[in-house]
């Protein structure tokens, strides 16, 4: 765990492994969002077996300063450009999961020279018009009773599995609750408006991405269940593969995801 100053803002990041640098952009339930940066997930550990993994906390998440009020997804994208400049990385391979996949795609289409190869795991951002999906921020609103069963049901294919219960126990400690709800404010800055956690313009812009791109998508993703079809239709140059799991497949099947991502990046 380390801290940087990026354009005057504090950014906390986890860094582990050795090899060529790999920028990891975390998801809604991930390192920084659920686990502290000094407790990397199994996916990060696997990626770090051959790569220098750099995993910053997005703006507004615990340890990283928020962007100014009114910031949109484009501001978050240019924050990533400033981060790469601070790290002195001209171009880098990027893995983005969930919310991080959305930001990674926005960066790749706006700053193609900064992205070598791109791996997206259940990326948010793309939207299927007319499709009713789970309202994430409604599901995760604080509840007086009932625990985190609804949250697990939205994020995991098996909400009562060991990993789901570990990520969202029904009686979390104060530190975990602080990390989780602080992170939600960061995601809500760009994802609160309808359609939630998406940019209606993104699908039409995906063909502008020139980097070789792998998209791993789960049929059991309750937040964006038709993402695979949309990605295939909107970006025929992408390699789109479907794997079993829910939205948090990077937690449910980290070894499967890591193996496929590392094969692609190699």
Give an overview of the whole structure.
The chain has an eight-stranded mixed beta sheet, with helices on both faces. The protein has one domain (2-131, 179-265): Alpha/Beta hydrolase fold, catalytic domain (Rossmann fold). With 266 residues, the chain is of the alpha/beta class. The protein is globular, with a radius of gyration of 17 Å. 36% of the residues lie in helices and 19% in strands.
CATH homologous superfamily (4th level) name:
Alpha/Beta hydrolase fold, catalytic domain
Rounded mean pLDDT is 91
How many β-strands, per DSSP?
8
- Series of secondary-structure elements, N-terminal to C-terminal: EEEHEHEHEHHHHHEHEHH
Distance between the termini: 26 Å
Summarize the main sheet: 8 strands, mixed
How does the overall form come out from the CA principal axes?
Answer: globular
As laid out across the biggest beta sheet, the strand order is 1-2-4-3-5-6-7-8
- Assigned CATH architecture: 3-Layer(aba) Sandwich
Question: Which percent range describes the beta-strand content?
Answer: 15-25%
**How many structural domains are formed by the residues?**
1
Low-confidence stretches: none
Main structural class = alpha/beta
How many distinct helices? 11
Structure summarized in a few sentences:
This protein is of the alpha/beta class.
